[in-house]
Amino acid sequence: MSTPTKYLLQESQMPKFWYNIQADLPKPMPAVLHPGTMQPISPDDLAPLFPMSIIEQEVSTEREIEIPEAVREVFRLWRPSPLFRAHRLEQALGTPAKIFYKYEGVSPAGSHKPNSAIPQAFYNAQAGVRRLTTETGAGQWGSSLAMAGQIFGLDVTVYQVRVSYDQKPYRRALMETYGARCVASPSAETEYGRRVLAEHPDHPGSLGIAISEAVEIAAQREDTKYALGSVLNHVLLHQTIIGLEAMEQMQMADAWPDVVLACTGGGSNFAGLAFPFIGHGLRGGTAPRIVAVEPSACPSLTRGKYAYDFGDTAHLTPLTKMHTLGSTFTPPGFHAGGLRYHGMAPLVSHVRELGLMEAVAYNQVDCFAAGVAFARAEGIVPAPEANHAVKGAIEEALRCKREGKAETILFNLSGHGHFDMTAYQRYFAGDLKDESYDERELAQALSGLPSVPA
Question: Modified residue N6-(pyridoxal phosphate)lysine is at which positions (predicted)?
Answer without folding.
Answer: 113
